[in-house]
Amino acid sequence: AQIDPSVFRNVFDSFNSDCVDDILFRGYRLMASDGTVVSLPRNPAAPSFVCHDGIPKGVNQLHLTPLYDILNRTFTDAVIQPEPKKDEIGALVSMLKRNTFEQNTIIIADRGFEGYNLIAHMLEKPNVDFLIRVKQSRSAMREVAKLPMLELDCDISFSICITQKNADKQNANYVFLQVPKKSKPGSTTRRGRWDFGNYYPMRFRICRFQLDNGEFETIATSLPRSFTLEDIKALYHLRWGLETSFRDLKYTLGLVNLHGKSDAFAEQEIYANLTTFNFASRVCREVVVRQPTEGIYAYKVNYKMAVTLCREFIRTPNADADKLLKDIARYTVPIRPGRQDQRDL
Q1: What is the Cα–Cα distance from 261 to 129, expressed in whole angstroms?
Q2: 185 C-beta neighbours (distance < 10 Å), count
Q3: Fewest CB within 10 A of the end CB: N or C in the chain?
């Protein structure tokens, strides 16, 4: 209790700054962002306490929104918020502001991130492109809702207005954003947040493709035409790596079994687990996996066993690093591409 959670945050940041993650996709780093919930022991007095008609007795939850390097399989940044005050778009905006992207970067996100303010921040950020799945029903962006429901690849452009003067209304190609008068640039309120001026020109690309089951997916992106519709589809598919990392973070590293009751203790454990996850991922990249000469599958490191061996390595004084790599290489699992299973709702 005498150690502030920011100490664990500094360890996480320092470890990342000392390491080089250099696996790229056509010269771009691939980053994904999404949110997940970490459940705590019940404590009605804590800020993380959630209580509503669906949960009449209430639970405690923290919301984790990370920035995840898909190809290097490491977490580069994270924002932790109490579940009642979760704001995934605001969390991603804050991570954009505090990070300098020296390498060309593509940020991939799912539905729920398609805010005008976030898109404007990504358009303004140097070396950053975005690829966001957007809604395509009546609740979609007005310019997206106008498009026909078929495969397409087109540019849309409009202006964001925060006033409704007669001169604005004469311009059909504008989107009025109702910003509360008390709202200031960088406001922490989700509704009507806008950090830019009036008549902000916005232009990006809309890609829509059909899935094998006949349904359509719509992607908003700032990537150039050198990325084809198939490339966009493949890039969005890679976002699933973040979902599997959440599973590893919770079940392989044990984030579902916290050791303390307070929000501060949970925050310490989240950053400790993120650091351990990155350590194990970077060690696994150095492991040489012998592929069988015969067989239909290629093999990769068993990440669950790798985490266990890395923990023992950290706990053991004067442990042998070469032995660690050899031990991890003994445990492998087959890579089965294209596996699908019906989602159990």
Answers
A1: 40
A2: 9
A3: C
